[in-house]
TrEMBL record:
Higher taxonomy: Bacteria, Pseudomonadati, Bacteroidota, Flavobacteriia, Flavobacteriales
Signal peptide positions (record): 1-18
Matches recorded under InterPro entries: DUF6265
Domain DUF6265: 307-412
A Pfam family matched in the record: DUF6265
Keyword terms: Signal
Identification of the protein by name: DUF6265 domain-containing protein
Length: 431
């Protein structure tokens, strides 16, 4: 029985992933002077089943794992062309990665027998490495130094020296995201503490680890930009953090808008995908690959967004926010909103969502604390519908996301004085 449990511990992480329908999306990336822009996206895997774990082999070549004929093989993608690099009938490959200063790529192979090892691959040939370690994920520090996530109870962070054939465990209870930190000799990894997950650095020579920042809650996938910025994704949002300016995510404290907080780079409201996981960028930071699940649209009916109804409270702009939505009736839902700071109302809103022309339309009007309107008498601020999904109502400039029956996030696009826009998440709890 004990051996069976150990076998399941090894098998479950990759077996579960292989059942997920995910796609790899490629976008143009601009990251200059701490301004990040993501644009011109396309689905480069476009394949039913598991397409995941992208890494850049070269500037315009991406490696990723992709399912075909009931198995998962390695694919390379370059400028619109895909090429299969493996076809292993006795197993499947995951986490393809270029080996530094070599002609090889490395990948985790999960055989039909249950064996799981790291392999070298080159021109259809392969060679097994580190047969004594059941590696789930890995990153190369250098040609002969490997840092890996080794499966077990608990999962371990192991540094292996291939020349000396040594393996040193430096931490436990870790996540799957392993990366070289730009402009340093360090590796980053995720430490899954009970209270909050951390991004930590590892010095492979000394084994010393240090805290860098707190992750976005329950998110373990990330990547680094060349300037030391970290990117993470959650839902339909891509976030960034400069850890040299701050050390944690303050989603509930929207009044603290320091550059060091996790802030939204882009909300993919137009793109039909959700649940972002893996992220990878090329060396020049001109391309970004994002893994996400294809999104299924629902009819634009109020019944499909009934979950918005309720009395919601949150914190924003140094105060307390209240947003109270009615149940659907008369082809509409209605809400009142107010912001209270230091015990005084700053402003109010009246909002409606109506069924109009086989779609939904969100309208609102603002009022100061004396109920004097910001807009003219007949003017409203309108947000046309983009899409309704199982847990989202996506309007142009405002997205409602249901986290669970008692928690909701509303993402609002706001214009800044300099003409730029920022996306502010309002986190609500139902009273």
């Amino acid at each position: 029985m004990k051996r069976m449990l150990q076998f399941l511990v090894v098998m479950i992480p990759l077996a579960v992933l292989s059942q997920t329908n995910t796609e790899v999306y490629l976008f143009d990336l601009s990251a200059k002077k701490h301004k990040i822009k993501v644009s011109n996206g396309k689905n480069i895997s476009n394949n039913e089943g598991y397409d995941n774990q992208p890494s850049f082999q070269y500037q315009n070549t991406i490696l990723f794992a992709s399912t075909r004929d009931g198995q998962t093989d390695v694919v390379s993608y370059t400028n619109g062309r895909k090429k299969w690099l493996s076809d292993t009938k006795q197993g499947s490959e995951y986490s393809p990665t270029q080996v530094p200063k070599s002609k090889y790529i490395s990948a985790i192979r999960l055989d039909t027998t249950g064996a799981q090892h790291l392999y070298y691959y080159h021109k259809g040939k392969n060679k097994s490495l580190l047969k004594d370690l059941k590696i789930g994920y890995h990153v190369w520090h250098s040609r002969n130094i490997l840092v890996s996530f080794v499966l077990g109870e608990p999962h371990k962070l192991v540094v292996s020296n291939l020349k000396k054939n040594t393996h040193k465990t430096v931490d436990t209870n870790i996540g799957r995201s392993l990366h070289k930190i730009p402009n340093s000799d360090l590796i980053s990894y995720i430490k899954k503490k009970k209270d909050a997950w951390e991004i930590r650095s590892l010095n492979v020579k000394t084994g010393e680890t240090k805290r860098i920042a707190t992750t976005i809650p329950n998110v373990e996938d990330m990547c680094w930009l060349a300037d030391g910025t970290i990117l993470m994704g959650k839902g339909k949002a891509l976030y960034h953090l400069n850890p040299t300016l701050n050390s944690g995510w303050k989603a509930m404290e929207l009044e603290n808008k320091g550059k060091g907080d996790w802030r939204i780079v882009k909300l993919f409201d137009e793109e039909q995908f959700d649940n972002i996981t893996r992220i990878a960028v090329n060396k020049s930071n001109t391309k970004i690959a994002i893994v996400a699940e294809p999104e299924i649209s629902l009819e634009p009916k109020l019944e499909n967004i009934r979950w918005i109804a309720g009395n919601w409270k949150g914190k924003a702009f140094g105060g307390i926010t209240e947003e109270n939505w009615s149940e659907p009736s008369g082809d509409s839902m209605m809400a009142t909103f107010k912001l209270i700071v230091d015990g005084k109302v700053i402003f109010y809103e009246i909002e409606t969502i109506s069924e109009v022309n086989n779609s939904l339309l969100l309208r609102l009007k603002h009022f100061n604390n004396e109920l004097k309107g910001w807009e003219t008498k007949d003017e409203t601020v309108d947000f046309p519908l983009i899409r309704v999904t199982k847990n989202k109502a996506i309007f142009e400039g405002m997205t409602f996301e249901s986290i669970d029956k008692n928690n909701m996030v509303v993402f609002v696009t706001m214009k800044q004085k300099n003409g730029d826009t920022s996306i502010v998440p309002f986190h609500y709890t139902k009273e």
